[in-house]
Design brief:
Layout: H1 8-12, E1 14-15, E2 18-19, H2 25-41, H3 45-59, E3 65-67, H4 69-75, E4 79-84, H5 94-107, E5 112-117, H6 121-133, E6 136-142, H7 143-148, H8 150-158, E7 162-166, H9 173-187, E8 191-193, H10 204-212, H11 214-227, E9 233-237, H12 242-248, E10 258-264, H13 269-272, E11 274-278, E12 281-285, H14 310-317, E13 321-326, H15 328-342, H16 348-360, E14 369-374, H17 382-390
Parallel strand pairs: 4-14, 5-6, 5-8, 6-7, 9-10, 9-14, 10-13
Antiparallel strand pairs: 1-2, 3-4, 11-12
Bound molecules: pyridoxal-5'-phosphate.
Pfam families: PALP (PF00291)
Family: Belongs to the TrpB family.
Catalytic activity: (1S,2R)-1-C-(indol-3-yl)glycerol 3-phosphate + L-serine = D-glyceraldehyde 3-phosphate + L-tryptophan + H2O
């Protein structure tokens, strides 16, 4: 974790022209308090020790940086390492951020956690950690999504959470977010809104990065132990951008390390987006001809969002990080290749990163090193892939 103080720009939540906080005054005040409290605890010894304790004892960190020997041989280029976020309890990186934010909520005296969820992954991670830490938990989910993801609704309820089906608007993620924000403004004195990705108004992008940066803190130490040098490239999938910013964080100041984000070609926010304000912050957004956010589509539920974290928007515009798209076919192929060659079934989201690594590795020499962030495991996706491949 970074020891340095936040820079002035970061404190206001700006990354170049991106980020900020474009919200109604009553919400702005609540977020200011949150930003102050986060600033207070981010370098607090006791708080960080507690965070580390649960990452180790509950999540099972540190997870391996695994040498993918067979995949490396097949591709015949750079040496490939996999950062195994899929081995975390609950099966993905999301739990890192969730635990960090709940511990902060407790320090702030909150008794109640609220969160939004689309497909249910963030909701399940939140319900899990709330159960473990004894917090009251309410998850807002669009009504349509609750119908499509009935099993995840049951999972959250099993974990003790209350799931509110939002029957407004289109009954999707955006409506769930609006409802959750309404709840926060009304109940902020004892309620904490737990946001699931490196998006939203300040301080969320900075806070989520802070908690997810454990990924690159570990991978940097691990690659130095194994190879005695830094990687040539770090590759991660970008939905809202939280696993990618966590996987990049400790390499951003290492100019020789290429940072590569991968997105679905039908939700190519960074590759094709334009600067705009969406959901309370400025970032690159996919806009239609009238300047409205475009509906996106991805076979991976966790990537279906027309915006992207403000820091990724900045890393793209400043040229520090590179972003590429992959097709659905390439993702399905990568999903199967990692399963067959390494005995690891990746999440469809993570398969985007693998798909790009498959193209990059053969272009590099055998002495070069690539780290792929395997953001989650694919058990949740097996039935869907079965439907796509066998029918
Ligand atoms: C949610 C999710 C993502 C996308 O979210 P980011 O905030 O971009 O990391 C990627 N992979 C998995 C496994 C997820 O669950």
């Amino acid at each position: 974790m970074r020891e340095a103080k936040m820079s002035a720009a970061e404190r206001k939540g700006y990354f170049g022209e991106f980020g900020g906080s474009f919200v109604p005054p009553e919400l702005y005040e609540v977020l200011e308090i949150l930003a102050d409290e986060f600033e207070k605890y981010r370098n607090d010894r006791e708080f960080n020790d507690e965070f580390r304790y649960y990452l180790k004892e509950f999540v099972g960190r540190e997870n391996p940086l695994y040498f993918a020997e067979r995949l490396t041989k097949t591709l015949g280029g750079a040496k490939i390492y996999l950062k195994r976020e899929d081995l975390n309890h609950t099966g993905a990186h999301k739990i890192n951020n969730v635990i960090g934010q709940i511990l902060l909520a407790k320090r702030m005296g909150a008794k109640r956690i609220i969160a939004e969820t689309g497909a249910g992954q963030h909701g399940v991670a939140t319900a899990t950690a709330c159960s473990m830490l004894g917090m009251d938990c309410t998850i807002y989910m669009g009504k349509l999504d609750t119908e499509r993801q009935a099993l995840n609704v049951f999972r959250m309820e099993l974990l003790g959470a209350k799931v509110v089906a939002v029957d407004k608007g289109q009954g999707r993620l955006k409506d769930a977010v609006d409802e959750a924000l309404g709840d926060l403004v009304e109940n902020y004195q004892h309620t904490f809104y737990l946001l699931g990705s490196a998006v939203g108004p300040h301080p969320y992008p900075t806070m989520v990065k802070h908690f997810q940066s454990v990924i690159s803190e570990e991978s940097k130490r691990q690659i130095l132990e194994k190879e005695g040098r830094l990687p040539d490239a770090v590759i991660a999938v970008t939905g809202g951008g939280s696993n990618a910013i966590g996987a990049f964080a400790h390499y951003i100041d290492e100019a020789a390390v290429r940072l590569i984000g991968v997105e679905p070609d039908q939700a190519a926010t960074l590759t094709k987006g334009k600067p705009a304000v969406i959901h309370g912050f400025k970032c690159l957004v996919l806009l239609d001809e009238d300047g409205n956010p475009q509906p996106t589509y991805s076979i991976a539920a966790g990537l279906d969002y027309p915006g992207i974290g403000p820091e990724h928007s900045y890393l793209k515009m400043s040229g520090r990080a590179e972003y590429y798209t992959v097709t659905k076919e390439e993702v399905l192929d990568a999903f199967q290749v990692l399963s067959k060659q390494e005995g690891i079934i990746p999440a469809l989201e993570s398969a985007h990163a693998i798909a790009y690594a498959k193209k990059l590795a053969p272009q590099l020499s055998k002495e070069q090193l690539i780290i792929i962030n395997i953001s989650g495991r694919g058990d949740k996706d097996v039935e869907q892939v079965y439907g796509m491949l066998k029918k």
